């Protein structure tokens, strides 16, 4: 949430054409009653794209799913993994793992009137409900409602005592439990999430599960996405360069600015692209200082590209204040 917005996804799509991209989690109430253009709008270039929903009322989730399908989303995902207090107060997220029958009812309602896949993202357990049989029962009950794809974060969630950030880091990863879940349910599609930091790691996990989901690693070091199509999907083409991906989003940036947007709305998502690379700090500093100005134009981004790729001074240095 607050990270994989439409601008982030457009940028990531220029690094990988085949990976499935996910929206931020949006509550069913927000989808039904909120500003849909702001919450759900996306560009055609983002396909394939999944809409991730939060909620626990089958009728509302069914309506939100219908809206998502009508807008053209390729998958509707129900988040049963988020551990934040705010989410728990709304009775959705990871706390729903204690109510598999309710999750099944939500999935059934969401699937009732369309053929777009409805998937579930969950944890391997919550609090004291942490036995392997608890996870298997949850999966089996929800699968009985027609869900065939589960994205499983290989950590349990402590709903009391740990912050959302701590829940992403403190509970130990248990990949083997997810592997065993797949072995026990060969007819289901099991996607592994949690702590995967490199494409080589992802490829190794694919010996045991059907897919992998990258979260923080893909955001903090987006350059790793450039190898996804070649290494994971077997596309016989060179991986896109960092500069090519940035140059590809310049027309999108100019269009966004012409509609009254800010340059930083887009460029905040590219700051990690040159992580660990020569002049990477200079690239981040240039964008962090220049893109936040209300008058900033796409020349600031062009200057950042020239700076990191060629070590060159660029008129964009002056455009930051223009």
From TrEMBL:
Gene name of the record: dusA
Entry annotated with the keyword Transferase: no
Family: Belongs to the dus family.
Site keyed Interacts with tRNA: positions: 79, 165, 168, 284
UniProt-recorded name of the protein: tRNA-dihydrouridine(20/20a) synthase
Active-site residue list: 82
SUPFAM superfamilies xrefs: FMN-linked oxidoreductases
Pfam families in the cross-refs: Dus
Functional note: Catalyzes the synthesis of 5,6-dihydrouridine (D), a modified base found in the D-loop of most tRNAs, via the reduction of the C5-C6 double bond in target uridines. Specifically modifies U20 and U20a in tRNAs.
Catalytic activity: 5,6-dihydrouridine(20) in tRNA + NAD(+) = uridine(20) in tRNA + NADH + H(+); 5,6-dihydrouridine(20a) in tRNA + NAD(+) = uridine(20a) in tRNA + NADH + H(+); 5,6-dihydrouridine(20) in tRNA + NADP(+) = uridine(20) in tRNA + NADPH + H(+); 5,6-dihydrouridine(20a) in tRNA + NADP(+) = uridine(20a) in tRNA + NADPH + H(+)
Alphabetized NCBIfam families for the sequence: PRK11815.1 (NF008774), yjbN (TIGR00742)
EC code: 1.3.1.91
Source taxonomy: Bacteria, Pseudomonadati, Pseudomonadota, Alphaproteobacteria, Hyphomicrobiales
Domain DUS-like FMN-binding: 1-301
Ligand binding (FMN): 52, 121, 153, 193-195, 215-216
Keywords in alphabetical order: Flavoprotein, FMN, NADP, Nucleotide-binding, Oxidoreductase, RNA-binding, tRNA processing, tRNA-binding
MF (Gene Ontology): flavin adenine dinucleotide binding; FMN binding; tRNA binding; tRNA-dihydrouridine20 synthase activity; tRNA-dihydrouridine20a synthase activity
